[in-house]
Write the structure tokens for this entry.
Amino acid sequence: MSGLSRLNVKCPVPIKDKKGKYLFNLKSKKACIVSFLEGKDKDQLNNKDCFIVGKNAALLHKASKKLKLYRKNSLSINSWGSILNKIDNKINKLSKNLKDLMRDDLKDIKRKWPKKMPNGIIHSDLFIDNIFFNKDKFHGFIDFYFSANDFLSYELATCINALCFKKKNRKFVLDKKRSSNLLKGYQSVRKLSEIEKRNLNTLCRGSALRYLLTRSYDYLNTPKNAVIKIKDPKEYIDKLNFHRNLSTFKDYS
């Protein structure tokens, strides 16, 4: 965040202490104070908002190339198998044979997963509550907790899943106008290569499976008296199923 804010990416700015350090201990945990970011998240993004988010995601990627930082993505595709192994068969009460379906999807996604593509620092968690607007204008990204190095277009796959679906007849379906605007906004700053376009469906399936896996694990293992809100995995069952019936870049744009 410190590096990005210096490069004019809109996000909170970490504040150093008297010793010039960002992190300090607070009740035996690491803590950090950051500047206040005006605005708040929206309940829903319109087509114009999606264009702006795509554009600013590309600006983030462009700026982060100048940062000499590296952090392995602890929730990359290599971690999904071990998460799946920790999910009890009780998850099948959410959807018939869900665990077997997740295993089949993981096997197919791993087989199709690209080996080499444009890579760099990504936010990795651009959900609607991490995108702030002020007086209806984009004001910044927050919550860089999952930020790591990965395929740049994997960021777009996560954004499509998080921001570009709507509920229709009690199921989540892709809003192609939103995803098209997101991709147009991104490409107004950074053009996607042919290999990125060719692999977008696989990345969308992978991102949907990643959130289905982590939500399923949390659904079964988070204590009922925990402070955090348990997110419903069913949303990502719908999204994974939807991507399974798509294949080309044009399906999203």
Q: What stands out?
A: The first strand starts at residue 24 and ends at 26. The two ends are 31 Å apart (CA to CA). Residues 200-221 form the longest helix (22 residues). The mean pLDDT is 95.
